[in-house]
Inverse folding.
C-alpha cells in the first residue's frame, strides 16, 4: 500500500470495520472533500450533497482499496467522480435566482465584506461557466494546490493534458475577469 | 497567465471548512437530500396550458356564433331569395321544422312584421334565415344546429341554446337591438324556445 503512516493505520482500521476509525478518517479528509465540492459546484447545499455522497462511497468501498495509489489520490478520485456525477444529474433551472439568494443570504457586516463577497461571487461564477473538465483542474490546482503530476494521477490523464486544460481554463478566466483588473486598478482584494 | 489571475484564483478558491453537520448526515446514512425542483416552472406551464385551453374552448365556442353574426349581416344586406313568403308565425315555424329540422316557436303576438324564411347552406351546415321588419328597420335572424343541446351562452347579437346557435342582424347600425322584439316583446307565457338565452 502507498500510504502515509497515519493513513495506513486508519485505512487498515476502517477495513476492519472499526467505527472510530471512520470518524477519524472523516475528520482528516472532510475539509478537502467539502472544499473541492464547494468550489466545483459553487453551491453550499450541493457541496454538502457531494461530500455526503463521497464519504458514503468511501466508507462502503474502503475494503476495495488495495493501495495501488496514494490513499489521498483515491479520495480525490472519489470526490471528483461525485462532482462530475452530480453535474451530469443536476439541472439548475434558476442559477440567477440561486445567486441572488446567495447574495441576499450572505452576511454583509461591512462594505469590505460585501465587496469581498461580490468578488468571490464573480470569480466563482466565471469558474462555474467553465466546462466540468476545465473547472476540475482549476479546483484541484487552486483549492488543493496539487501539482500537474498529482492532478494527472487523480484524473487519470497525462500531465500534458492537465497543462493544456489549465492553459485553456486560464485564458477563458482571464477573458471573463479582465474587467475586474480595471475596476480594481490591478490590485488584489 | 497574469499574476493577478493567479492570485485571485488562489484567494477566491481557497479551501473551506466543512459544516459541522456533515458527519451527522453521513451517520444518518440517508441519501443526499435532493433539492426539490422549483415549483414555479411547473405552475407556469400549467397556467399556460389552462389559459391556452380556455382560449381554445372560448374560441371554439364563439366561432360559430361570430361567423353566424357575420353571415346574418351578409344575408341582411345581400339576401338570398326567400323560400317561403309569409307573415304568419305558425306557417314559418312549420316550414322551418319541415325543411330545416329547427323548431322555431315564434309567438303569435310578436310585434315584428315577418317577411319570410329561407334555408341557406354555409360550410355544409343548413341555416334558417327569417326575415322581418320592425318599425322602419329590416332584420334577419339566422338559426343553425351546431351541436348537442348542452350549455348556453350569449353575446350581444348571437347566442346559443338547446344545441342551436342564433344570430341577429339589423339594418339600424346604431341600434341593432331594434331587432330584438322578435323574441323579447312578449310576455313570459309566450316566450319562444329560441329566446331562452336572449342575445338580441
Amino acid at each position: 500500500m502507498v500510504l502515509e503512516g497515519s493513513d495506513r493505520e486508519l485505512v487498515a482500521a476502517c477495513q476492519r470495520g472499526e467505527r472510530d476509525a471512520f470518524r477519524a478518517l472523516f475528520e482528516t479528509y472532510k475539509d478537502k472533500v467539502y472544499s473541492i465540492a464547494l468550489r466545483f459546484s459553487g453551491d453550499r447545499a450541493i457541496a454538502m450533497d457531494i461530500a455526503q455522497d463521497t464519504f458514503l462511497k468511501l466508507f462502503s468501498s474502503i475494503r476495495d482499496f488495495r493501495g495501488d495509489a496514494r490513499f489521498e489520490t483515491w479520495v480525490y478520485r472519489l470526490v471528483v467522480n461525485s462532482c462530475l456525477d452530480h453535474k451530469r444529474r443536476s439541472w439548475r433551472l434558476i442559477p440567477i435566482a440561486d445567486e441572488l439568494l446567495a447574495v441576499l443570504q450572505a452576511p454583509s457586516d461591512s462594505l469590505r465584506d460585501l465587496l469581498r463577497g461580490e468578488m468571490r461571487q464573480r470569480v466563482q461564477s466565471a469558474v462555474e461557466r467553465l466546462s466540468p473538465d476545465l473547472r476540475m483542474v482549476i479546483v484541484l490546482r487552486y483549492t488543493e494546490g496539487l501539482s500537474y503530476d498529482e492532478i494527472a494521477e487523480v484524473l487519470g490523464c497525462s500531465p500534458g493534458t492537465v497543462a493544456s486544460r489549465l492553459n485553456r481554463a486560464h485564458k477563458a478566466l482571464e477573458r471573463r475577469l479582465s474587467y475586474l483588473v480595471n475596476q480594481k486598478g490591478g490590485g488584489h482584494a | 497567465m497574469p499574476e493577478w489571475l493567479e492570485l485571485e484564483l488562489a484567494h477566491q478558491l481557497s479551501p473551506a471548512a466543512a459544516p459541522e453537520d456533515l458527519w451527522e448526515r453521513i451517520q444518518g446514512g440517508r441519501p443526499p437530500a435532493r433539492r426539490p425542483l422549483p415549483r414555479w416552472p411547473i405552475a407556469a406551464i400549467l397556467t399556460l396550458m389552462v389559459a391556452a385551453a380556455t382560449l381554445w374552448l372560448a374560441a371554439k365556442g364563439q366561432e360559430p356564433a361570430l361567423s353566424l353574426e357575420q353571415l346574418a349581416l351578409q344575408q341582411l344586406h345581400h339576401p338570398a331569395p326567400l323560400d317561403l313568403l309569409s307573415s304568419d308565425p305558425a306557417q314559418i315555424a312549420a316550414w322551418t321544422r319541415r325543411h330545416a329540422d329547427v323548431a322555431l316557436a315564434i309567438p303569435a303576438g310578436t310585434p315584428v312584421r315577418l317577411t319570410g324564411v329561407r334555408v341557406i347552406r354555409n360550410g355544409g351546415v343548413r341555416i334558417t334565415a327569417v326575415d322581418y321588419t320592425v318599425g322602419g328597420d329590416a332584420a334577419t335572424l339566422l338559426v343553425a344546429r351546431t351541436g348537442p343541446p348542452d350549455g348556453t351562452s350569449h353575446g350581444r347579437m348571437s347566442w346559443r341554446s338547446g344545441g342551436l346557435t342564433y344570430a341577429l342582424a339589423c339594418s339600424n347600425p346604431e341600434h341593432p337591438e331594434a331587432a330584438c322584439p322578435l323574441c323579447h316583446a312578449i310576455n313570459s307565457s309566450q316566450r319562444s324556445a329560441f329566446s331562452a338565452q336572449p342575445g338580441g
Q: What stands out?
A: Residues 63-195 of chain B form one domain.
